[in-house]
Amino acid sequence: MNQQKKLQPPLSEADVRSIKAGDEVLITGVIYGARDMAHKRLCEAIEAGDELPFELEGSVIYFVGPTPARPGRVIGAAGPTTSSRMDAFNPRLFANGLKATIGKGYRNDEVRQALKTYGAVHLSTIGGAGALLSKHIVSAEVIAYEELGTEAIRKLEVVDFPAIVAYDSYGNSVYKL
């Protein structure tokens, strides 16, 4: 059985290079929740030379659109969104310092090449387990694009957030390709 490796963002290239496809990781620290429309806006901001709502260098983005929080909770169910929906945007974000993404499912060839080129990883977590995953989120704050609702960018503080390295920075994958 693999020992779970601890990650604490912001991630360095050494952090990313130390984990391999199939490794189980636990993330503690700040990650950012964002989906399709937020990714599109981040890429537009990069292209326009505008300031981004958070520092991309070393960051982790979780593909999530959480449900509203119940009373006494910081966030509602927070399960992963299908990763391929972000494929058009992620190579540009990796080129600008993003070190990890978290979602579910496959990534295309361009994303897999960008992971190798820029020393980044894609992590997967379990779809359908949003209520369980939300228990690892201890604070959540909308920091950009509030008008997008569930697709707004959220600053999430997580403790021992579980994931598996689906695609590593060496071109390896847990999926048969």
- What characteristic shape results from the CA principal axes? globular
CATH architecture: Alpha-Beta Barrel
CATH superfamily: Fe-S hydro-lyase, tartrate dehydratase beta-type, catalytic domain
Rg from alpha-carbon coordinates: 15 Å
Strand order of the largest sheet: 2-3-4-5-7
Name the helix and strand elements from N-terminus to C-terminus, one letter apiece.
EHEHEHEHEHEE
Percent range for β-strand residues? 25-35%
CATH topology: fumarase
- Number of β-strand runs: 7
Sheet bearing the most strands, described? 5 strands, mixed, barrel
The percent range for helix content is 10-25%
Q: How many angstroms separate the termini?
A: 24 Å
Protein structure class = alpha/beta
Number of domains: 1
Query: So what's the CATH class?
Result: Alpha Beta
Low-confidence stretches: none
- What does the average pLDDT come to? 95
Number of continuous helical runs: 5
Description of the structure:
The protein has 177 residues and is α/β, with parallel strands linked by helices. The protein has one domain: Alpha-Beta Barrel (fumarase), CATH 3.20.130.10. Helix content is 22%, strand content 27%. Strands 2-3-4-5-7 form a five-stranded mixed barrel.
